[in-house]
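Lab meeting prep.
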Amino acid sequence: MFKKDDIKTGLLIGLLAPLVGMFGFYFWKFRRLTIVEFVQWLGIERHLLTAMISFSLLANAIVFTVYVNRHIDKTARGIFIVTLIYVIAALILKWVY
């Protein structure tokens, strides 16, 4: 998977890496809560949602950097596209809530 140079692979990795980042945020800050309680807490404290999205984008940045450094450019392009979509969503959430 790390050697395949394909935009579709990059899109898939770009979608999955932030999920890993979101779980990392959960375990880092809120491991005492259950997942259900955590989601409810995100509904109450909406500013945490944008913080969690920003933290999850860090996972995308790490994966993107790995692919760029290995010169697997098409996959890196897919990761970058998904990252831009996440950034736009985070900004919209920040401005709306």
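Slide two material, second protein:
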Amino acid sequence: MIRKILRILLKAFLILLIPVIIAGCQVLQTIGEKPGPEEIARYEQLSYFKEGAFQNPMVLPFYPDRITGAGPQNWWRFLWFLLSNPNAPQTTLPLVALDASSFTAAPAELAFYWLGHSSLIIELDGLRFLVDPVLGNAAPLPGFVRRYVDAPIQRKDLPPVDYVLITHDHYDHLEYATMRALRKRPETHFVMPYGVAAHFRKWGVPEERIHEIGWGESFQAGKVRVVSERTLHFSGRTFQRNTSLWSAYVLQGEKSRLFISGDSGYGDHFADIGARHGPFDLAFIEIDAWNPGWPNTHMFPEEVIRACHDIGAKTLIPVHWGVFDLARHPWDESIRMIRTLVNQDGTIHLMTPKMGEKVIPGETQTQDWWVLQTATEKPSDPADGD
């Protein structure tokens, strides 16, 4: 009888163990890979790589006692299925649904779609760029980070893409499932900072379609020059940080210049970028997840405005907001503050498309769609955004 019970328990254990092993293998694949010894030897020639890690131009302090905002702290906050979050929207956010028929066969001279958070489709001089596409999950485990709204497009409906631009390897900017889908497209190439290529090699992307560039280096994509520039941030898909680089991008077209900030705290690198590459017709700049507890990791709203002036941005398109439960402030606080600051400044044009909305600069008029959204959730507050 005891042997029979033990056999039953062993079978039950094995039945439970198999899906755990499968899930573990999937997580390891999703995490990616660190650069190997040969790559590290090359990086050691760089001024911003020391002691086995990429270095920031400034220190990124962390002050636990200065953390502000509502909601649970640390890793408990990601157990959203057990804990409610007062920062989340209470109604469904609007979007423009896209499918394969939504795109012209030939990319426009200049147009873009904000897909939510930091994900973008940019059409410039006949090329189509896909920036930091995260269309599903922003964590190594499904459902670990709450999405406020589904992506406006499914992976299978993505149009032909010439170049994927990756700013850094955090999960809310680099999604394994989307890269796995895009690797099957022979026409698609991938541009990324140093160290990120190790992930792509593990994921089966052919070497000839991987292009790594460091700060100040460029890559020629058709008529568009893609330049990697400094940011103030960090990288990592495990507890080990900074084995890969983090970057901003400058897209220099024949008639238009675009800036993609990636994630960054505020620093003198913006003035340097503006002096060498500005002014910019469009600037896609991150606005969310700021906090006094980590002051140099993301920009506060007033610093976003300063960065716009530093680089000479004519039009600001806020990104890194509206989708993922990653901040400790209300989901719409950053965009409300940015709108107020832009109105006070009077020199910057703000464009705020809905997720999935096609924008043709000079033709498309965007709306402050979150104002109506907020009005349906709570009474209006005249102090909001001040």
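Talking points for slide two:
The two ends are 73 Å apart (CA to CA).
Residues 130 and 260 are 12 Å apart (CA to CA).
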